[in-house]
Amino acid sequence: MTLSSYSDNKQPQRRGRQDATANKRGEHGNSGPDLQDAGSHADAVKSAGHSSAETDRASKQSQFTPSDWTRTLAAYRQPIPSRSVFELTITLAPFVALWAVDWWALSISTALAIILALANAAFLVRLFMFQHDCGHGSLFRSRRLCDWIGRVIGVLTLTPYDVWRKTHALHHATTGNLDHWGVGDMPILTVSEYQDMSRVGRAGYRLIRNPLFLFGVVPFYTFFLQNRLPVHLMRSGWRYWLSAMGTNLAIGLSLMTIIWLGGWDVLLFVFLPTMFLAAVTGMWFFYVQHQFEDTSWQHDGDWNIQDAALHGSSHYALPGILRWISANIGVHHVHHLASRIPFYRLDEVIRDHDVLAQTKRMTLWESFRCARLHLWDEQSHRLLSFAEARRGISGALISGIAPPIPRERRSGPRLPSRFRGGHRPGFETDPLHPVL
Asked: Is 15 or 96 the better-scoring residue by pLDDT?
């Protein structure tokens, strides 16, 4: 399957390079009219040739398969150590400084302290994205250095690094697969699965897909509770327990120090607001990267990891400040195709390959609709809202009341087997695991 069939044709194509030297001056001052015309003509011919080459390249790339893109993107995988250090410094230093200012502001005004805490959440989100890149081994050339930086940041983000690295790798390995999901993906049902559920099962699914639940309860549950015990990896060895317990110990000592030095007010009005808003923001970023209308979900027989990477991940085209905060995680289709590319080189990929810039492109305003999409329609290959499914867009009318179902089915499972860990040992112990 080629890229052209998936490109977002509604988005304007990037303009070609303009001729900046059409009125080029001669070596000894202004050229005469004939020389100016000749120079302009030569530059125009050169520009036309360059534009033609770019057009030919774009036309060729529009026929690229995901495998072709994987080979092309390999050139961007090399990290730049000095750039990585710089990006880490300009994020960690302001985060620590704003924490100190926020602590001081608490003695003046609780409201001011909360406002500063919410602002500092932006730096914490960005630090989490650095931890994410460390997990992929893309921030530095040394795997060991990436791991230890990731572990330190994990104390700040309340996320045990080795546990998260394992579960996130499984997310990359199964994204877009209807038969093998559960790690790193939001719970999602197909239209037919939703039809076959009991009334209680439907109510439960509506609850876990409700935006207030997804972006209110789930972030708190994930970062404050779920991350404390790696029950989903209980049979995977001691490393993950050591990661979780070591992170918990470091977090506990840090919080005890905060309370000892500043009291409970610092915990309640500085630490918690920063952490919770960062968790909610991170949850939203990861949600819209796979839960959008023309995403891709396939059953095992039709699923391909590279197709799923390119066509099941969005290009979240954010304003500049949000791209900086999120460390370009919105260029998610490229990230899934080549996860070893450092975050600061993803913009370079988009600049060099306009076809990728327009693929699965979604603006900030357009992304808000994603919160209403809950059911995957296997007929139209679209993610639908409950209302769209009821109107029969999927080709199967779903009423607000559960349709007649044989009694034995009503007494059956409330959710499909993949919700209960049929494909992920230990998943049945934690049906929400893991969100990120």
From this structure: 96
